[in-house]
Amino acid sequence: MCQSIRCTRRVFSLFVLISLLLLSCETEKYPYYLSADHGVLWIANSADNTATCINRIRNETIGTYPVGPNPSRTAVDLFGNCWVGSRNDDTVWFVTQSGETEVYHGFNNARGVALDREGNVWIANSGNSTIQKIDTSTGSVSGQVTIPGATYLYGAVIDGNNTLWLSDSSSDIVFRYDTAQFPSIDTLDSVSVDVYGITVDFDGYVWAAGPGSGVISRIDPDTMEVMAITTTSVMLSGVTPDIHNRIWFCDDYANALIRYDPQTEEFDSFPVNGTRPHGVAADDNGFVYSVNMDSDTVSKLDVETGEIIHIFEVGSVPYTYSDLTGFIYRRITLGGNDS
After folding, report:
1. Can you list the domains of the chain with their CATH numbers?
2. Neighbour count for residue 179 (Cβ, 10 Å)
3. What is the value of pTM for the model shown?
4. pLDDT tens for each residue of 112-168
């Protein structure tokens, strides 16, 4: 089985390379960079030690598979396979849609997980504030590299310049790191913002959602200047852009998703028919998905009307607020910021 998975990874790396070569032909501002959307999303069920794969096109569950203890963030590759870290041991898991798994060791309570432009996986360890890289072409795992000044790494996302952005929820810091210098940490920039969820939009801005303050922050990727936006909410968690580059975030207390339009500066609130929405992700087809931690569900909403299209039942305590649909990876990380 491991041999088959390694072959899949090599094909994936080749596919990413070919896709990147094709990007230079695109002129549309927000183009469909790659071939057909794989159409799935992945949820890490923390209390069950499982990950659930959902076909979001057909609105049906593909399967729920065992992974490591207390799983959290998920990252989805171009084939709809999942990478998920375990917060209670030293493992990171690769899971295919059919449930095949491969386990990687040597981590320290992995939380943040993100894919780069070459298809490699970057892990942020909450146990000791280090980062690691999984080379998906060889399956090798790097050593742990400490992020100076970090106390509790919480999330990770990679933008279209292959820059790794890390959130530190304990110290309220967002770090900017050029992956090309790894494993060196000669250059590391940071900015203080209230942060829980973290994402990047089509224009390259990094967004941080702050719990307790009711503020979302937009970070300029070049200058690190921050624009703080006071919201109508209190407890914020997950955050994502939608297909129109509007920003969605979770209002944990109100059991709602909030949509913010940077052009009009208007807010709209939409109930999710679930409790404690913690994660949110978008797709190419005009939908967003709310991961409802206390009701063990995922709600699918129309990005224009906020109408609930479908509610999926998942495992116990779904705790996923990363790129669970692969939308950020496919459209932004691989798309670049200069289209």
Report:
1. 2-333 (2.130.10.10)
2. 18
3. 0.89
4. 999 999 999 999 999 999 999 999 999 999 999 999 999 999 999 999 999 999 999
